[in-house]
Design a protein that fits this description.
globular
Length: 280
């Protein structure tokens, strides 16, 4: 009888241990990765609490990694598995704030652009997925869109200009008014439209321009920039695309998961027609 009881206790303990392991694994599987597709010039990455180190092709990047490019440099990354491909232009600083695989084809991606220019190709997302690019005092929500977002600072480092651009598809952009005013302004951009906002981190005047349709030559130049994006990786075995969090290099049929060359208030009504509105 004692032996039977001991066996039952041991079996229960093993079952509990197994369940705990499964829960931990399931939780860990939420975090997806970014894969570096190409690097040109001086681009560095920084892990939380670490030092900036040279970025290399095939590096596997975890959430909260900071990327920084210098003048004349650029890099392409596959972000959150096959969810998107982004390009860091020169003199750009961006943080891979969140990359999560939520299961059932759903994903959640947050990028934070502190300065410079970011171009991105985001595949059509499921209804339960989200993809956001945060900027100073604002954010852009992306859904199956080719986009371009830039943040430019003046010489004082206090005043910024943000330009949201929808290259193809739709993006929803929001900027926050100064604390003394409160509220937000939200605009929806479609193919070939851009929205420029100028503000200050010291809480000065916020200048919100009306969304504009890009001149034909400017729009054509942006489209050409997207021609240089690397093609999406083929799915494993030629079947359905792999889920977020996996990456398959071109010319292979297996699943690639890493490499050893790197780190693992209410909204106010829209302003009246015109060039801009100033909010203090």
């Amino acid at each position: 009888m004692k032996r039977i009881k001991s066996i039952l206790i041991c079996g229960s303990a093993l079952a509990l241990t197994g369940l705990t392991t499964l829960l931990v694994a399931a939780s860990g599987d939420r975090d997806a990765k970014a894969i570096v597709r190409s690097v040109h010039g001086d681009v560095k990455y920084q892990l939380p609490g670490g030092q900036f180190m040279p970025l290399k092709v095939n590096a596997v990047l975890d959430p909260q990694t900071v990327l920084k490019s210098t003048a004349g440099a650029e890099a392409y990354l596959q972000v959150n598995g096959t969810t998107s491909t982004v390009k860091l232009e020169e003199s750009t600083t961006v943080t891979l704030s969140k990359m999560e695989n939520l299961g059932a084809g759903d994903s959640s991606t947050d990028l934070k652009l502190d300065g410079g220019k970011l171009l991105g190709k985001v595949k059509k997302l499921s209804a339960n997925s989200d993809y956001k690019v945060a900027v100073p005092h604002g954010v852009a929500g992306i859904r199956g869109t080719d986009f371009q977002v830039s943040v430019t600072w003046d010489a004082t480092g206090n005043n910024y200009t943000i330009v949201f651009t929808s290259v193809t598809g739709t993006i929803v952009c929001q900027v926050n008014f100064p604390i003394v005013t409160g509220g937000q302004d939200t605009r929806t951009l479609i193919d070939g439209q851009s929205w420029t906002v100028t503000g200050s981190v010291t809480g000065g005047t916020l200048v919100i321009n009306q969304p504009q349709t890009l001149p034909a030559d400017v729009y054509a130049a942006i489209l050409r920039a997207f021609d240089g994006f690397p093609p999406p990786p083929p799915p494993p075995g030629g079947g359905n695309p792999p889920p977020p969090g996996t990456y398959v290099p071109p010319g292979t049929s297996g699943t690639y998961t890493g490499g050893d060359s790197g780190a693992s208030g209410g909204s106010p009504p829209p302003p009246p027609p015109g060039d801009s509105v100033r909010v203090r």
